[in-house]
Amino acid sequence: MYCVNCEAYGHMANYSKCPLYPKPRKGATIKPNYTTIVNSLVRPNVSFAQAAAQQEKNKNTAPTPNRWHHESKNLKNEIKLFDYAKINSESTLEEKVAKFADAVSSAHNLASKPIKNTRHSYTPQHINYLITCKNRARKLYQQTLNPLHKTEANRLQKLIKKEIRIHAQNTWNAKLESLETQDNSLWRMQKYFRKKRSDIPNLTGPNGIASNDEQKANLIANTFIDNYTENKRPGKHATNIDSDVTNTLTRFFSTPPSSPISPTDPDEICDYMKN
Looking at the keywords, is Transferase present (predicted)? Predict the structure, then answer.
C-alpha cells in the first residue's frame, strides 16, 4: 500500500491517521488559512485534475465577436444604389422594396445569435452561497486530493439539501396562507387536489414500449386489426346492399314527416310501456 499524500508505504491516502492529511473528526471545519510548510511543497506527481485545470485556464475565454461586419459586406454586394434610381412604376417600386427588405432581414438573421431560454426556479441568496462554497471545496479536493476538502464538500452538500427542503416548505406554507375565498384561489386549489387523475400507461407491444409516433401508430393499427373484423357482405356479394341502403335513405328523406309534429299523448306513452 502506498499513500500519494505523504508518499509513504503502509497505508492508503484515505487512512484516518495519515501524518500529512489526517481524517478530521466529525463536525470539524476547515480553517480559511489552512496552509503549512509540508502541504505547500510542490510535488512532482501532478494529478490529472491539476493538469486539466491548467489547460482550462489557458483556454481563450474571450467572447465571440459579432458577425455583423461580414454580413454588412455581403449586404453591400447584394444591394446597389443605382438599381433604385430608375423606378418608373408602382410594381417596380414594390419589387425593389421587397428585395431590399429581404436582404436586410437575411443579413440580420445571419448576424444574430438566438437567445437560449435559461429560466430557472428561484433560489435564495444563502443557498446560492452554499452552492458556491461546495463547488469551491470540491474543486480544491480535485486539485489537491486533500480529504479535508472532500469532507467539507460532503458536509455542504447535506446542508444544501436541508436548506432546499426548508425553502420549499416555507414557499408552500406561504402559498397556502395566501389562498382566499374572494378570488376563488382556495376553491381552485382544493379542486386540483380532489380531482382524481388516472395514470395513462405506456403503449407496450411485442417489441417493448412504443417510443416514437410511428411505433405508436403501428401498435394501435395492429390492435384494431386483431380486435375488430370487417363485416362481410351477405350472399357472397350476390345482393347489391349498397343500392338498397341508398334507396332506403332516399325514400326516407324524400318524404319527411309533417311539421310541426303533434305532441305525444301521455296515455300513448303508458300503453307503449305496458306493451
Answer: yes
Give pLDDT tens digits for 184-227: 888 888 888 888 877 788 888 777 888 888 888 988 988 888 88
9 phi/psi in degrees, rounded to 5: -95, 150
Q: What's this model's pTM, rounded to 2 decimal places?
A: 0.34
Distance from the first to the final alpha carbon of the chain: 100
The grid coordinates of residue 81 equal 444604389
Classify 204 as helix, strand or coil: strand
Residue 209 φ then ψ, to 5°: -75, 135
Closest by Cα among 3, 5, 12 to 149: 5
Q: What is the rounded distance in angstroms from the CA atom of residue 160 to the CA atom of residue 164?
A: 6
How open is the CA angle 44-45-51, to the nearest 5 degrees?
Answer: 100
Asked if 22 contacts 155 with a C-beta cutoff of 8 angstroms, the reply is: no
* C-alpha dihedral (85, 90, 92, 95), degrees to nearest 10: 110
